[in-house]
Structure formats: C-alpha cells, structure tokens
Amino acid sequence: MQITGAEYSNQLESASDETSIEFISVHEPYETSIEFISVHEPHEIFQSTLTENIETVENIHDISSTEIIGTVENIHDISSTEIIEPAENIETVENIHDLSSTEIIEPAENIHDISSTESFEGKWENDEDAKECRRCQKPFNALLRRRHHCRRCGQLVCYECSKERTISRDQIVTQSGNGKTGKSSHRICTSCYDLMNADHPEHVKPGVTELNILLLGETGVGKSTFINAFANYIKFKNLDEAVRGKMDTLIPSMFTIMDAYSEQKTVVVGQTDENELVTNKGMSCTQGCRSYKFRMDDNTEVRFIDTPGIGDTKGLSSDEKNFENILKYINQFDHLNGICIFLKSNSTRLTIMFRFCIQELLSHLHKDTRNNIVFCFTNCRGTFYGPGDTLPALNEQLLKTDVGIKTDQSTLYCFDNEAFKFLAAFKQRITFEETIKKIYAESWKVSADASDRLIQYFKSCTPHNIKDTISLNNARQIVMDLSKPLAEVCQNIQINIALADEKKEEIKRCDSVIADLKDKLYIPQIDLRLIQLNYPRTVCTSASCVKVLTVGETKMQKIDYVTHCHKRCYLQGVEFNVINNKALLGCRAMRRTNNCQVCGCSWNNHMHITYENEQVSVDKVDENIKLLINEKQSDQIIKEEYIIDLENRISQLKEEKRIINNIMITFALFLRQNAIAPFNDAYIDYLDHFINEEKIKKGANPTTYNNDVLNELETSRREYVEKMETIKDAIVTDNSSLTPISPEEINNLENQLYHLTISGQTLQMMKDETKRGYINAINYHEILHNSTSRFSIMQKMFSPSKLYKR
C-alpha cells in the first residue's frame, strides 16, 4: 500500500470536526493487548498535532502492512506487536521509506493550552550552537538523538526531553526568529511544560487523585524491580494470567537464575539506556531520578519516583550528589504523598554506610514527612513474608536517632518481587519445575496485595508540601556555609580581645609622656586574610606536623599547616576545612588505611582545605586619641581616653561574639524544629578544632601564651552545648516557649551577621571564599564517563510517562 502526501492531507481534511480515537485492542494469543489512550479533540487541533513540524512532504513510500499509521478513517493490517505512529518530530521530510518495526513514536498525550498572555521567552537556537541536549545534557547525533526546538524557549533539546505539546493562540518562536500566530499544537521542552503546569493549576484533570511516591534505598535492594513488578501486578490478576499475557518491562534489568536442570541462566529484560547501567555490578543501576506514572481503576494516578541507590561503590561523593539531585528532581512537584525506604529482609544489622545515609536523608527532609514514610522489605519469601531480623535493627536505629517514625502494620510492607524475575525467565523459555511455579504464584499474590495496601495507605495520608522541604534545605545550606567562618571569627574575636587587654595593661603601667607613647596609641587588631588555593589540599593538623608562628610584632601566634600530605587532592564528597571527616579515608595519602602514608598520623587528624587563613597584624589608628594629641590635651587625659577606647573595643568585640553564638543557636534550633533528624552540628566540630589549635600554641610557647584565648573558647563551647541541651529537652517536651523559626528569619539573621561593625565584612568575605573554593574544587574533580551499554540503544519500548490501565 502506498499513499502520497496529498492523499494523506485530504484524509485529514475530510475527518469530522470532532475527532475521537477510542481504545484499540490488538489481540494475540494469551490475551495480549496494546492500548491507545483516548483523545477527544477538535479536528483542527488533532490535525496540527499529527502534521506538526512536517514542513515539506514529497512522498511517503513503502509503508509496511505490519505497521500502524494513526490516520482517522482507515487503519490497515495492524500487527499484534508493532506500532508506528506519525513522525511528528520530523521538521523537514523529503521521503519516508520502509519504517522500522522497532520504532515507536507516541501521540501527544499532554496538550497544554497557553493563554493569550503567554508567548515565547527566548530566541531560536542555531543547530551548530548546541552539541548536547539543553535539558539532559546528552550529546546529539544524527541517528539516535536528533535536535528539536522547543517552541516556547527556542532551545535545542532531544526527543525524550520534548515530548510534551501545547496549543497556542499566541506567538510561537520560529526558526527565522519571527513570531507566527494561530491556534495549533507545538512541541515544547519538559522544563517549559513544567513551568506552564505550575502556573496553570486549573489544567489538572478533574476527579483524578494524583499520588507522588518517592522510592529510596540501598544499591541493589530492588527499587527498580519493584516498579517493574508493580506494572504487572496492576495489569494481571495473578501469575497464571501474566504467564499467558505480554509482560511489561519499564526498567531494564539483568539477573541470573537457576533452571530446572540446575544450570545458571542470565536473563536480560528491557531495553537499556544511559540511565540504567545494568552491567555495572556493585554500582547503582539507576543513574538518575526518573518517574513512572500509572493509571489505576479508581481514577488514581500513581507516580513512582525512582532514585539512584545509596551506598554506591562510587563512594560517599556519589551519595551526596544523589541527595542533591533527588531534591532538585522532586522540586518540580507540588507534593509528596509517600516516601518508601527499601530494606532487604533478614539483615541482622544495617550497614554503616546505610545508617549514615538514612541519617543524612532524614536531615534533608522536613519533619512533616515523618507521617508519610513507610518501610518496604524485599526478598521476603525466605522470612515468611515478614521483615525478619531487619526490623529489630531498624527499630534500634530509629530509637537512636529519635525521629518519631513509627513501625507498625500501616508502615511496614513486605514484598517478594522475585515473581517478576520468574516471569521474565519464563518468557525467555527457561524451564522450571511445577512446584517452583506454585511458590512464585503465592509470592505474586502476597506482593500484589501488599502493593494495593501501600497505595491505599498513601491515599489516606496528608500530602507533604515539597516547598517546605526545599525551604528547609536552602536554610540548611546557609547554616553549613557559615559554620566554619563563624567559629573562625569567634576565635579571632577572642584573640583581639586578648590583644586589647594586653595593650590596656601596658598603657596603665607606663609612666612615659605622650610624646614617647604616641606611636603606641593605636587599636591593636589581627585581621583574617584568605588565600585561595589553586587546588584542594589534604593537610595534617597534628601538633607534630604543624608550625607555630608569631603574628607580626604581637605576642599572638598562629598555626601554619606545613605538612601537605596530598597537595592536589581531587577527592569528592569530603567536607572542606574540617577534621575527623570519614570521607578522608578515601584520600590517596591514606591508601585505604587508618594512617597517613606520608606523615604517619591518623586519618582523623587530617583536613581537606581549599583556602588558607592568614592572620595579619594591623595597627588601627585611634582617631579620638589622634584628635586629643593634636589639641595638645594633657598626658593624663589622653591615657585615660585611650584606655576607655580600648575598653569600648573589648565590649564591642564581646557583644559581636554574643550575637554570633546566639545566631548559631538559632540556626541549630531551626534545623531541630523542622528536620526529621538534625544534621551533624558542624559548629561544635569547628570549635573543637580551634580549641585544639590553641592547645598546640600553648604547648609551643607556654610562658608567653595568653590563656584567656583558650579559656574563653572552651567557655563558648560549654555554653553552646548547655543551651543546645536545653533546646533538645524543650523540643522533646513540646515546650510552647520555643517560638517556631521560619526560613525567612534565617535569611534575616544571615544579613545581620554581615552588618556587624567589626566582623561583618570578614564574615561575608569568608563565606564567599568558602563557596568559591567549593566551586573550584568541583571544576577540578575528575569525571568518570561510562560508555553506552553493549545492549540495544534504541528508544525504550515504554516511556516512563506512559499511563498504565488496570
């Protein structure tokens, strides 16, 4: 059968004004069916959707009788397994020959109507200006990842990132850069579509309950297998029906299984892509967040958000990056109905890495999510479909963290998704004993029932507003960025107080006339000057590996980190400028041991730095004393005024120190009030570090060292800890005297710090340099690029966004 471009257009024009494509089921043996989604749109809209971007069509030849072309009046020779839909992403087509039966181009399921107030927001991007997709950053190529323009922002994106459609009655950017008007369907990128949906809540389908469920867990625990299994649980009533039907595989998977003859077989299902590296053993198969949406019988849409596994062999840096990406990904949604934390059943203890990651995860989540968290146990057939020994270990961990998450029937769900693996193996003609099939049939039933119970529970939960979690993490970042600068400034304030006290006592003891003293009548001050390093560096902070130097002509001392154990350290995931960071075990200097191979000291005495703090002695002119000398006031008056100025300076420094301590306590209170689990209190760690520095200084010069500096730092630490304990007790007892703190107040307190008379400018500079050093470190980090899997790289048979009907 052949059809010309003109005939194709005539067929469209002869269609009725109200076009309706009903469900088409193509039956094959074992009740397999392929479904189209119903589309009820006016003919003019449907026509523009089918013909969008086909600017020149000369001929369409050799359309196979085994393919489906989505015309309105005639559908011929539909194959039971193949669908070819209109080539709506082709911008200029001269000829279309012999369309491959492996291709799937889906109809525009999501049509968004731009109001007349909206228009394009960018200019048409030239093809040569973009080597990779502006959304997913995957490189373009002529065969598998072609360029497409978003008709809203004009940027170049790939097919996967431009599946959405919009109906516009306004200007749409064109290749020439000019606007054109008219009501028609246009391709837009995922970012523009999300922005438009955020601005148009009225486009949410009426009567549809949308559940957003986040899946989290250790690498290899079975999150992706759960999604594959769920797609089949809602499609088939039982395993027998699934065996006769066509299995759905949304996420590629590879596993080994023993057949009836005790031979090990490797089973590969699904078509791989860059996001699912099924061949990388030990690494998280899922490389980035991706959501999968299902349509249930009761008009409920369930969206599972799959995430990379934690505890990846790529290390702590990968976990921290994944947490960051998860937060960015869920930010596109308004709410979360549930968070599933996946655990393997019958684990007598949780791994150290997983305990850390659970704590880190809970510190990122707003406390309101605690009522939306459940625990999903996998591989439960061996524990009689229960959590086994994992539950006591989990309860012990939750008790230690004191997060208030309950573990009862409503929050514990047990699965054995091995039934999906059995189904996949059976479909690849691997033979099993009949008794094995009966075992997995029971496993299917139990797991499918648990899935139903899980969905019903999340429907009953109050949705969590994701903006609360995002605001929490923005404020959390402020606290983390300021922890070290504030502790460092506190140390420097105490040093300057000691300097002023010494100068005051010197003037009191002096009997010289002003003519002999005028060169000494200045305000002594030590400023912090940051020196940015070109590369991140690992240094040792042990007393035997540092030098104690005198600052200028003062008696004050500073620590110089002269032992550079790894001068160019590109280790990822390690916190900067803090000691006792476990991630430093991965530094090359440690060689995976507890001691440094360069200096011999323990790993916990080392620090990863991006800048060095130079303490500079500055003689600040006392303008008041200068004026009195010029006015030829008496020596006694000048000395008295000078002492008063020094005392005022000391009072001002103490007041700034008090403000800093109170603000740090407020920061910690905010995190404890709003996060499920407060993150590690870095301020205490930094105070401990600087107290240790002062002890090293004292040990180097015990006779000249000013003990007030060390004593006051220890006092500050003690007072901070006491206040934090009081706050903890008040939170536990739900004391109403604790006023809730908002993210806006955190921003205001940050600005207050930068306006401190003496220390404000230094704090601003230190925070900026800290962030700049972090950016430089990221720029120098090596990037490991995994090549494309050896398996098929064609487009996946099922899009993650496709809706599944039960």
UniProtKB/TrEMBL annotation:
InterPro entries: DUF8206 (IPR058519), P-loop_NTPase (IPR027417), Sigma_54_int_dom_ATP-bd_1 (IPR025662), Znf_FYVE (IPR000306), Znf_FYVE-rel (IPR017455), Znf_FYVE_PHD (IPR011011), Znf_RING/FYVE/PHD (IPR013083). Residues 127-197 form the FYVE-type domain. It comes from the Eukaryota. Keywords: Metal-binding, Zinc, Zinc-finger. GO terms for molecular function: zinc ion binding. The keyword Acyltransferase does not apply. It holds the Pfam family DUF8206. This is 15131_t:CDS:1.
